[in-house]
Amino acid sequence: MPRAQFDLRHLLLLMFVCSLAFGVLRTATAEVRALIVFSSLGYLPMWIIWSYLTTPRTSADFATQLSRHRRARPRQQLARRLLRERRQRRTLF
To answer: What is the extent of the structural domain holding 21?
Structure first.
């Protein structure tokens, strides 16, 4: 079986593929970047595990978001009350 020769066409093709991959990796999100890198290495299960571990799905995260939302309510109520008072003052004068 003859050895494949690495000529200028192969080098240009390799440069084109690398520049294309670099452009995709630069503009892609972290998940897409991880999918491209891990799948090119043949580690698709590793990407699935990584994406599962980095996605917040636990009830603790949900409770944290809920408590933040509850803490934000008094501030929203205060802002609404101040706005209402301002409007009432405008109508008085």
So the answer is: 1-55
